[in-house]
Amino acid sequence: MSELNFEEAKSAHIGRRAVLCGAVALALGVSTDIASASSPAVGIKQVGKKLQLELAKNKALAKVGGAVTFDLSDGSSVAIVRTAATTNGFVAMNLSCTHQGVTVVQQGSSWMCPAHGSQFDKSGKVLRGPASQALYKYPVTATAKLVTIG
Ligand code: FES
Known about the structure:
This protein is mainly β. Helix content is 7%, strand content 34%. The two termini are 16 Å apart.
């Protein structure tokens, strides 16, 4: 197993999840109970310390507002959201609420926390507390065919 920069960074940000044994493995495509309005991501592969997602296999990302999700080995989930029609118009964020870490769920065009009602916009910005910080975002780059996270 190799370490993934993005999970370590998220763990440091959230400050409550330990990176398992200093290394992580991904469990992909098992997110249907996480964000019912999103699609489970497919075609993700690990490239070095980054993840790459094939756009051709994730049709939900063809439209602005579309999202796909996947799970990490630490039990948290990640969403990739199309926020603009431009090539780099993607956001990748961890779906752990920044209040107390409960996984947020997609509700219409926002993300809701079922624990205490925090609400985040599609890009993870806080719309309503008690959370005061945006959902943790990972670095993202994209081409016409691939989205790279990390
Ligand atoms: S854990 Fe999300 S609002 Fe409290």
